[in-house]
Amino acid sequence: MKENKPLKRSAALRPLSIDHHQGLLLCWKIRTGIKRRIDPERISSYVRWFYKNHLLPHFEIEELHVFPVLGMDHELVKRAMGEHRLMRTLLPPISTNEKLAQAAEVLESHIRFEERRLFEQIQLVATPKELEQIQAVHQGLAFYENDTDRFWERES
Q1: Is 110 within 8 Å of 87 (Cβ atoms)?
Q2: I need a surface site. Which of 35, 122, 125, 140 has the fewest CB within 10 A?
């Protein structure tokens, strides 16, 4: 059995990895909502909020500042860009449990790919100046939660 060792992440990429952790939590929240038979529109409303406030800014940082380190023609970057395009069409209009489950699956797979393959490659080739620039552009984009409807929590 292959052992999954913790990934060593460059300090410059850690804020993006923290974003990825929040994305994985989004997947968990979607799946929890479906399992608890929460109205899909409640879940979709949260997903739309998360998409607008966290995913889109994250995609922009990656596309403008991270992916160019490898070059936009690099095979891993092309895959990531294709997945970003897919999520831009898949996430905002979701409204059924099936589409929510699909969105969670696609997002989780994408995050795992970026963390395990793309970011690993970027760390190998990025110059200190490129890493410094990546770290600088992510300043001030801390995660904040939408407390309007915490559907994933147990109701008392």
Answers
A1: yes
A2: 140
